[in-house]
């Protein structure tokens, strides 16, 4: 536990225009700008948090959703501790593309055990009246794909934004706890083997 | 006089600023007038000797000839001279460096000083000699920090390598700058990465000045991991006072947002018809002061190589010329205006139109008019082969003889009036008498990346604006830095088969595969030939192509209004001796250059 990482890298992925940059800005600076330009490549902001008494720097990476920026963004997937798959509830295509984003992330981030990696799904723009994706559809997808937590957010009016990022942090820390445990059992096993070997020979 | 240092790769061998007003009476020691002397370890006696003699000679010659002294040559050392009121600057370089370049360098130095310290007289009233000496030392070391010898020749803006950086990232940088300008207190900006320009909204000259501070804060941040003067936003943000010339300011105010560097577009056409104009085009609205020179030098109005404001890059003249008859434009600058009185209005206008009639007086000690034939041979010089006998290391005698053609011809009068490529715009804004307008330079550093913004004074006290700019750009700067860092590793090496240098006169950028590694020994002949050709191009406005060669090396140079390119092919056997003939491999250079350089984005077709 003591060696827990102090910087957590969380990456936002999803189609262009679903509100990834706005979510990041809302969470870190609590501002909303309706006229943001397309993100080119990647951007990131840091936010200091205290979780369970630990000081943690949350590094939120915002990526370009458009296909033409693919080669610019993919090199920065590596080293992510958590991936926030984002779609817009008023755009069903962005929802359908979630699995592509997940695939792209797993491939470029070089995730060894995708089923254990913490994904969080965000349905943004809930402030918009005309929805194309229902809560049920979204939850169903999350359920089927690995029981991911799902949050309906609005960067515009700040709905659920902080909650979603905090959930991401908790997921990562929970993962870390598990791996810490696994590593320690591994170590024990390694030490045990040679000892048993020597007893065997003697 | 003291023995001068042998020519070496160091750009500058001497630099000093001498204040004549401190030495009035017979009994006043010369040392009182020495504001700064480089190398600082020079014995005081020798400092006095040089200051006294150079200043004396210059005053004498300029009074005899009624025209200012621009260069002096003393044995193996070539001095660019700048006089303003009682101040006297001299910058000495090896004779191998083109005169044009030495003069530009001096002007650039003075420009930098005034940019950060304000008017010269005033800054010496407000600050101690020692404080300002440290500033000079800093600027001098900055301007000499080019990676290779070739940077001694061209005053250029170093940019990120556009062949390795995704153009989308350049777009990203441009958008960050644009976003910052949503705050009305932000005038203009540039983004720099590790001493190179990623994107700039400023003129190349202004960008160069800003970069001095960038490299300063970079070394500081490297040293102490902190930042300089900071403000509420914490360590990575700093600010410093700077001073713009009227023309710089006007350029900023008159240009639409994010106007890119293009000093030759008529930026002020739509500006309110003030007297101050920067534009140098036909469409200039005539004004009384500028009329006469315009009429006299109609050729200056065409879009031709020599329309450059480089004309005045090392002449203290323009400010004065406005007051006088335009013919006598290169007046010494004993102007009636102490700390920037009036007269800026006329200065810049004239600076590019000013007549280049020689006043006859030449102040160069030797070889002044050697290459006066350029009017005669100008047209014939479309393609000239100069035989550069003697190899590069030895044979000083013959080299000196060649220098007459290539180098020393570029003295005084001609260099001043006719050197063609527009790159040397740094002194366009001659500083003297120009009222300098204080602004602030805001810098936000993210590791190797710097966002530099020229802002109104109010910006620094306006917390809301500052926070807005800071927060709206932070994420993008973080990202851009991450991107650039990931590709920064690749450095272009010499590609072996050829050496080239391509100078973009409009943007003041240099593309070259000259690495400058290990003293640059193998590249030295190329650099030397380039330097000679450069001088010659500057000297002969109609010259477009030239080949220069000796037994071992042939270098091809070609130029247009917007660019100058130098090319050398490395190959086993050169048949380049004696009188030029069809067998000469030198003659295949133009076509080789055209083909080889295409992949570097240089189009000579």
Mean pLDDT of chain B: 72
CATH topology grouping of the domain at 12-145 in chain B: Beta-Lactamase
| Total number of helices of chain B | 17
- CATH class of the domain at 12-145 in chain B, anyone? Alpha Beta
Number of domains of chain A: 1
- Class by SSE composition of chain B: alpha+beta
Pfam families (chain B): Intu_longin_1 (PF19031), Intu_longin_3 (PF19033)
InterPro entries (chain B): CCZ1/INTU/HSP4_longin_1, CCZ1/INTU/HSP4_longin_3, HPS4
Biased composition (Polar residues) (chain B): 279-307, 327-336
Domain CCZ1/INTU/HPS4 third Longin (chain B): 496-594
Describe this structure in words.
Chain A: One of its GO terms (biological process) is Rab protein signal transduction. Chain A: Belongs to the small GTPase superfamily. Rab family. Chain A: InterPro entries: P-loop_NTPase, Rab9, Small_GTP-bd, Small_GTPase. The complex is a heterodimer of chains A (202) and B (605). With 202 residues, chain A is an alpha/beta fold. Chain A has one domain: Rossmann fold (3-Layer(aba) Sandwich). Chain A contains six helices and six strands; from the N terminus they run βαββαβααβαβα. Chain A has helices spanning 20-29, 70-73, 92-96, 98-108, 135-146, 161-201, and strands at 7-14, 42-51, 54-63, 82-88, 119-124, 150-152. A six-stranded mixed β-sheet of chain A has the order 2-3-1-4-5-6, with helices on both faces. In chain A, β5 (119-124), α5 and β6 (150-152) form a beta-alpha-beta unit. The longest helix of chain A is centred in the C-terminal third of the chain and has 41 residues, at 161-201. Chain A is globular, with a radius of gyration of 19 Å. Among the domains of chain B are: 12-145, Beta-Lactamase (2-Layer Sandwich), CATH 3.30.450.60; 167-220 and 234-253 and 433-486, 2-Layer Sandwich (Beta-Lactamase); 498-600, 2-Layer Sandwich (Beta-Lactamase), CATH 3.30.450. The N and C termini of chain B lie far apart (51 Å). In chain B, 34% of the residues lie in helices and 18% in strands. The radius of gyration of chain B is 24 Å and the shape is flat. Residues 1-8, 225-233 and 257-431 of chain B have low confidence and may be disordered. Chain B is built from 17 helices and 17 strands. In chain B, a hairpin with a 4-residue loop joins β15 (545-549) and β16. With 605 residues, chain B is of the alpha+beta class. Chain B has a six-stranded antiparallel β-sheet with strand order 7-6-12-11-9-8. Chain B has a six-stranded mixed β-sheet with strand order 10-15-16-17-13-14, sandwiched between helices. The longest helix of chain B has 25 residues, at 463-487. At the A-B interface, α1 and β2 of A face α5 and α15 of B.
